[in-house]
Write a structure and sequence with these properties.
By secondary structure, the chain is of the alpha/beta class. It contains 14 helices and 13 strands. An 8-stranded mixed sheet has the order 8-9-7-10-6-11-12-13, with helices on both faces. Strands 2-1-3-4-5 form a 5-stranded parallel sheet, with helices on both faces. The C terminus is likely disordered.
C-alpha cells in the first residue's frame, strides 16, 4: 500500500499545486496546518506524529519563516524533529533567504515550482512506493546457444523468492520462447511485454508488480505467444527502473546479442553471470559475448558448466577446468555448475528450475544469494 505524503503549508495556491503533483504520482497526501514555532507548540501540534512517520514531508516556504517551523524567538530551541525526507517548497527563485530557511528546518533540499515540478512528482512517487534500497539486479547470459542461461535465471529467481526476497524475473530475450513457459505458467493471467512496448518516462513500481503473472511467489515479465514485438530502449529503461524501485532482487534473462534495448538492460544490471560450458568452442564464443557485454556492464562473472548433459559424459577434459575457463575469458569466477540429472524431465512435469531444494542447481543459487545479498558480490566469486 502506498504511503501518505505530508504537506505543511497555509498557502492555498501552493497547496493546490502540491496536491495536484501527489495525484499525478498516484500518492495519497495528508495536509496539516498551524506549524509550531517552539518546543511546547511542537509537542501539542496535530502533525507531529505524521512528521515522524511520513516517507516524505513537503513544507511550504510560507511555514518556514519567522513564525513558522524552525523559528526560535529569543534563542529558544525550536524543538523541531530533524529527519531525512524533508523538502522545502517555494516559488520565488529570487529570494536568497529560502536556503537559510531550508537549513533551519533541516530540509534535505529546496524545490522551486514550477521549474522542478517533474522532479518533485518523481520524488513523491518514489516516496509513496516505500522506496528504500534499489533491488539487486542480476543479469544472466549464455556464453553460447543452449548453455542454459534461461534455466539458471529461473532457478535464481525461484530460489530468491523461496528465501523470502521480493523477486521479479524479467525475460529480456524476445526469441527465447517465454520464461513463463519454463515456469509452467504460460496460461496464468497477467500482462506480458507487448503491453509495455509503448512505455515512456516513469512506470509505477507497484502497478507493474500487480499487473504481472505471479508464479512460484515471484512476479514474471515474459513474452506472449503472438507476433514478435519490438521493445524500444526507452520501454526497457522505464520497466526495469520501476522493477528496481520495489527493492529485493530482479533477475534478467538476457540474449547474447547487444542492441540498444539490451544495452539499457545491462546499464541497470549490478552483476552479470555468463554461463559457459567447459568446452573450447563454447569458450571461444563466450569470449565474444563477454567483450560486447563488458562495454556496458562492468561486473561480469563466469559460471562454468561441467561438460556433458543428459546421458552425456561428466568431468572435465585435460587442462580445461572451471579456473582455466575463467582465466581464458579474463573474468572472475562466480562458481561451477554441474549438470543436474532429471532437470528436463522435471520441467516437462511443470517443476520449475531450482524447485528441487536438494539439487545442485538450487544449491548453487542458495550459495550465490547468500554471498550476493550480504554484499559479497565484489569479492572473489561464489564458491559452490
Amino acid at each position: 500500500m502506498a504511503e501518505t505524503i505530508l504537506i505543511v503549508t497555509e498557502d492555498e495556491e501552493l497547496l493546490d499545486d502540491l496536491l495536484r503533483l501527489c495525484a499525478a504520482a498516484g500518492a495519497e497526501a495528508e495536509v496539516v496546518h498551524g506549524a509550531p514555532h517552539n518546543r511546547l507548540a511542537w509537542a501539542e501540534w496535530g502533525g507531529a506524529k505524521a512528521w515522524e512517520q511520513a516517507p516524505l514531508v513537503l513544507v511550504g516556504d510560507d511555514c518556514a519563516g519567522a513564525q513558522g517551523l524552525g523559528a526560535a524567538p529569543g534563542g529558544e530551541p525550536s524543538g523541531i524533529l530533524r529527519r531525512p525526507g524533508v523538502l522545502l517548497v517555494g516559488k520565488d527563485m529570487d529570494d536568497p533567504g529560502v536556503w537559510e530557511r531550508g537549513a533551519r528546518i533541516g530540509a534535505e533540499g529546496v524545490v522551486m515550482l514550477p521549474d522542478a515540478e517533474s522532479w518533485l512528482a518523481g520524488r513523491i512517487a518514489d516516496a509513496s512506493e516505500c522506496v528504500g534500497r534499489s533491488a539487486l539486479t542480476v543479469g544472466v547470459l549464455g556464453g553460447r546457444g543452449g548453455a542454459g542461461a534461461s534455466t539458471l535465471a529461473c532457478a535464481l529467481a525461484v530460489t530468491a523468492a523461496r528465501q523470502g526476497e521480493r523477486t521479479m524475473l524479467v525475460d529480456g530475450d524476445a526469441l527465447g520462447g517465454g520464461l513463463d513457459v519454463l515456469l509452467g505458467g504460460e496460461r496464468t493471467e497477467g500482462l506480458r511485454w507487448p503491453a509495455f512496448a509503448e512505455s515512456r518516462g516513469r512506470v509505477g513500481g507497484g502497478a507493474l508488480e500487480e499487473s504481472l503473472p505471479r508464479l512460484h511467489d515471484l512476479s514474471v515479465l515474459s513474452w506472449d505467444r503472438g507476433d514478435s514485438v519490438l521493445i524500444p530502449a526507452d520501454a526497457m529503461k522505464s520497466v526495469l527502473s520501476a522493477a528496481r524501485r520495489r527493492g529485493g532482487v530482479v533477475v534478467v534473462d538476457l540474449p547474447r546479442r547487444v542492441d540498444e534495448t539490451v544495452a539499457e538492460a545491462l546499464a541497470q544490471t549490478d552483476l552479470g553471470l555468463l554461463l559457459v560450458p567447459a568446452e573450447l568452442r563454447a569458450v571461444a564464443a563466450a569470449h565474444r559475448v563477454a567483450s560486447r557485454t563488458q562495454m556496458v556492464l562492468r561486473d561480469l562473472r563466469a559460471v562454468v558448466r561441467t561438460p556433458g548433459g543428459p546421458g552425456g559424459p561428466r568431468g572435465y577434459g585435460p587442462g580445461l577446468d572451471e579456473s582455466e575457463v575463467a582465466r581464458l575469458l579474463r573474468l572472475p569466477l562466480a562458481g561451477e555448475l554441474p549438470w543436474e540429472p532429471g532437470l528436463l524431465e522435471a520441467a516437462e512435469r511443470g517443476v520449475p528450475p531450482g524447485a528441487r531444494t536438494g539439487g545442485v542447481l538450487a544449491r548453487f543459487c542458495r550459495e550465490f544469494w547468500a554471498q550476493a545479498l550480504s554484499g559479497g558480490v565484489s569479492g572473489g566469486g561464489v564458491a559452490v
